[in-house]
Amino acid sequence: MASFQVTEQNFETYERGVPRLNAIRQAIAEADQEKHVYWQFRFRYDYIEESVFCGDRYYALIMFPELLQHYDAHPELQDDANITHSLLVNFRWIVEAAPEFPQISKAEIDNYFRLFRRRLLENDYSLSIYYMKRSLFYLDIDLDIASSDFYKFLESPLDSIADGKPLYYNHQVEYYLAMDEEEKALKAAEPIFSGRMKSSALPHSTLHKFCRYHVLKGDYEKALSYAKQFEHTVTGDLYYLHHIGTLLALYAHTDPAHAAKLFNRHYPLFLSSKNPWLRAAFLAGAAAFAKWADTQQLLVLVSGAVQADDPTQFAQQLCRDAEEVAGKFDQRNGTSIFTDRIRAFCAGL
Fold first, then answer.
1. Neighbouring C-alpha atoms within 13 Å toward the C-beta of 153
2. Do residues 253 and 238 lie in contact, with contact meaning Cβ atoms separated by under 8 Å?
3. What average pLDDT is seen over the chain?
4. What is the pLDDT of residue 243?
5. How far apart are CA 303 and CA 343, in angstroms?
6. Angle between helix 58-73 and 81-97 (nearest 10)
7. Residue boundaries of the structural domains of the chain
């Protein structure tokens, strides 16, 4: 229906995030009222896409069961290869998003992966993206599973459901850095850093991985060399709050005044985020800044985005909040890695 096509085009005129999501929600209601099967599917797809790429992903997880149920209820959708492809792309986003919410149990996440694998096989797609996303999930939980899936990912052919060749190398960087194999990571990153491999997420996603790796090792000079190359790309974007968390941890040691400015600019975004993983990453960096900043720098921090009578108390609260969120992930995953990292940042507060 032409009017629905125009409606979809008009989504671009709305501000990203909640305003656009609300507009798509209205479009879903109109398509449901007219029982237009294709547009009922298509608008739900648009809604999930917007939620994923505006950073929260919260709304995507709520909407996805509706999309899946609608698809399964209509054979005419299942007979359309393009629609099936769109469903599997949505499923790819969901298996990546679900681990970012500790209220979703590990058993539920594993079930998502099993369903995704089954749907890929039923439709004759490669399991490359399944192995990639599952490897990422298990990197902080079980290195044996993560490694097994990583090498299966390397051996599986890429297809149209995969994230693409540039992110194929980006994931290799993630894995090798997690295994503390920096030379292999640098080799995997070479096609990205040379400009031969391009994507909307690159090179800043890869640069961030190296920056975070060196921050955690305490090599701030190397971390700075990467930070300067991607900071301008991620500043002010809700989707990249985890990058900002890394930058806060870095500048806590190298430029606390700049860390204060970054904190003030992004604290409102943090408050608006419904994504626990993004919130945890931001809080980890904020906690590091709170630990290392002196009283004058903390006053700069609290005089901007927030007000606090006692900067030290505010710093302690940041660390408590960070540890609380990290603890939820560790409880879900059966680990201590997130909490241990926060406690290292906040020692002495």
1. 25
2. no
3. 91
4. 97
5. 26
6. 150
7. 1-79, 235-349
